[in-house]
Fold each of these.
Amino acid sequence: MSQDNKTIATWYVDPDAEDRMADGHAPIWRHLFELIVERDLSQKSVLDFGCNQGGLLRHLYAVRPFRKALGIDIAEQSIAKAEAFKGNMPVQHAVGGRLEGWVEAFDLAISHEVIYLIEDIDAHAANIFKALKPGGVYYAVTGCHTDNPLWPKWRDLVAKRTNTVVRDRSITDYAKTFTKAGFAVSGRKLEYDGFVPFFEDGWTPDFADALDYYTQTKIVFRLVKNPNGAAS
Ligand SMILES: C[S@@+](CC[C@H](N)C(=O)[O-])C[C@H]1O[C@@H](n2cnc3c(N)ncnc32)[C@H](O)[C@@H]1O
């Protein structure tokens, strides 16, 4: 079986690390929302692919309420937490990695730091393309690519600390993959403009690296499905 639909308990081997990850990602998610061109989500359906404990959708709903959303992830216990935390939000969570049965269902899809973990990236691109409505947009965000100078160290850390396998792909590899799937591909640097906290957790022991990572290295792909639904 491909890794992409194989379920795991939690992504981090240490489940408590997922709470810390969510705290660390929250300011990045909020910065990302400001980059998303589609402003009014009140009538839109949203997909968060690789949602872990569901924090991104909770933060999004607080600032840009959407009509409904799906958060999906292969990590079963993380999805159980996402369900427990969702309150009255119009959000459904599912365990899995393939989006079976979701056809032209979403206006907007987001994945934050997930695409570098996907084994069959061509299948992922095709699945998201199919799951989006014509004219739908996929924002795929990652700094975990081979153009990241920290990547040789990070790929070992991810392998040790998590229950998934990393994939070595460049920014251009992603651009080509999504183009092949039919998306009109554009991208930008995340250019996070807030203060970056200094954490001695092994990811960025050199603080200069952390500052570069959030401003220069992390990439936001904007992937648009042609409004007539066909490949561009
Ligand atoms: C680095 S975490 C990011 C989580 C969340 N998006 C965030 O911003 O905090 C990567 C997540 O992707 C999930 N994941 C990895 N491979 C996946 C796949 N093939 N399908 C769905 N989710 C996947 C992991 O279980 C994990 O929750």
Amino acid sequence: MKVRIHKLFDYLLSTTRETPDCFLGFSLSQSPKLSDFMDDLDPNLSLDWNGVSFQGLPMLRQRVIEQAELDGICTADDVLITAGAAEANYLCFRQLLEPGDDVVTISPGWPQVSVMAKAIGAKLTTVTCHEKDNWTLNLDALRAAVTAQTKLIFLSNPNNPTGMPFSAADLTKIAAIADHVGAWLIVDEVYAGLEWTGPRAPSIAGMYHRGISTGSVSKALGLQGLRTGWMICRDHELIMDCVILRENSSEIMNILGEHIAEIALRPERLGPALAVARAQGLKNLDVLDEFIKSEPRLSWVRPGAGLIGLARLEGEEAEPFARRLLAAPFKTFLLPGTAYDMPNHIRLGVGGGDAVRLDDGLSRLADCLRSIS
Ligand SMILES: Cc1ncc(COP(=O)(O)O)c(C=O)c1O
């Protein structure tokens, strides 16, 4: 079946012609510039791909293992470099799921799994996480949703859009639930490295033999435009199945993106880059948190990780509100919760570093809230 548009993408597409002055929805760290990498790039680098592994640059794959702290558990052979975490998820959905298969995920959550389950004809079961529980997942509810027919469980850690992180203990229990029925478990770790309340959780690929970690340099490192990500899985048949599918779309990787990603993931760069991203993200998160506390019509569960969170908007439908905020005189972008079937919430982001002019955007949001009360 054809892949159909999701409400999240529909909203983004319908607003791309707008020219907002401010963004309250930035979901990635401030992006580096090409000049930041020039000193480490070889001007004689061949842009031919021949002779390089179909799985991606071996050195980049090794860096992926190191940044995930999987050295000694997984190897570079367990990595496939992809066009972002989105392609890694896509390849897995396509190759793991057949029409009629059961898939389990959580709500609110990253919508890619529901779009793809629908297109493939798989049956999606959603376990709802509630605001009153700080958006945590009730593991008994997950256990009840997973049956002998469940082929795949999909989660993002931390969760997009709530910023709720799963701990190592949670992941151990979730892996046991998956293992009980032999299901695959994809954990989309695209926001890993931006934890505010605890340590980074271990990557699922190292915890469970059918665990698949997907990730990229897009979020914490702000390198979304490189379109360079990965999947890590110890099942080589799955890695090869994904290589075979990719041979029929983009065929091979983006060699320049991979070289830059490899440089960005070198330990001497990664540590400092993450430290800056974390300091900027936390600073913006504190500003946003204070703002929400001061606005009677807004409330939220402060995200435990990542650059986005969901705020409840009292007495107003989120989508008309987001469109009103986007129009003059406010000219400020945020994503309405309708993108996640949450019509009374708005998604707020604290990415973009200092360049994002968060204060200005928040004061426009305050004006817009006052204009409707
Ligand atoms: C949970 C999640 N997965 C995947 C993606 C896509 O990321 P990438 O740029 O690595 O494809 C996003 C982007 O917003 C995301 O939030």
Amino acid sequence: MKNERIENNIERIYETDAYQTSFTATVVSLSRDVSGKFLAELNRTAFFPEGGGQAGDRGRIEDFAVEDVQKIDGKVVHILDVPAHLEEAVKERLAPGREVPGEVDFALRFHRMQNHLAEHLFCGIAHSRFGYDNVGFHLSDVVTFDLDGALTKEEILSIEKKCNEVIWENVPVKVHFPSAEEVEKMEFRSKLELSEGVRLVEIEGYDMCACCAPALHTTGEIGVIKVVDFMPHRGGTRLTLIAGRDAYEDYVRLDEEQRKLMKLFSAKREEVAKFAEDYATKTNAMHTEILELKKEITGLYVEKIKRIIEDKTAGLLPGNDPAICFFMKDADEVMVRNVINECLKTYNGILCGFRGNDKEGYRYVCGRKEADEKESLRDYAKAIKDALGGRGGGSEVMIQGSVEATEKKIREFFDEN
Ligand SMILES: [Zn+2]
């Protein structure tokens, strides 16, 4: 097998050497696309064009930023990000025939290679153990891919463990360009319909996969692999993993979170979840207790308001039920509504419950059993607003709002009306 390839008269440095990121080349053409972007083609390049789920490299040609690289009609097209004031300069300095220096952003390339080879390794082990194939692959901040078979959590963890052991083994990674006859006799994973020369990335002893992207020299450079998410997907499994730098950064982040929780729960590092569970259990019990107490308090208020109603209506003829206010200062709105609804079962006048305090103002809910054409409840909301400030509104059987007045003023309003 020969390990070099010149395709469409372009020497593709990235296919054989993923670590050579500085190079010089001759400009073959410079054009502009429909959006006005400058597109440069070179006779040789270290820039990897987007493919196989991996994004195109970034970097510089001369002093011009390469924002993306695409394979178009078999050619490698460098898409440049050129500010308007440099348009003349780019035309001159990247004129066809000029020799230019190129520099790939290696930190970004390396980061992507870590993620990409991590995916190869995981899928290689999954394939050899279960015979599953990768049927979808996407590389962004995380590596997401779909295997065409179901995996349990235990199976996934077992593959993940094996992957990390292969990383520690620091196995060589090799790139091959087999001839058509050689391909016939070879076993390898392939997720592409291969139309041109086959390029294979081999993790020695563990995986052989058709792939067009730059590859690391050894598995050790992946650093670490961790599956962070998995779910059943179309009869198979969708997995998300992080590797290398991403996994390290994730660990730093999680460690920071863990420290906060340890402090919050006064718990040891490995006991945080247990403390959080205890906390949740206690909180739920407390919540139930609070609901019970609210119910009890509501019942006591109902009795109290009924006594007030009796006092206020003593000696009055039926049909003359007055509007009555009451205060439940620390109650919530639901409690006030429940008290009103309960008392309205036996009262035909307007009942108005207030909660809050003189300093911050009061919120109110007013209700009546049924709409009264002679005395509109909505008009009553307006009367409260005019006398006590604030705002309010609602229906003919229930209004709610807020007032800016003190308890004394509120009581005066109800006594006068
Ligand atoms: Zn690949």
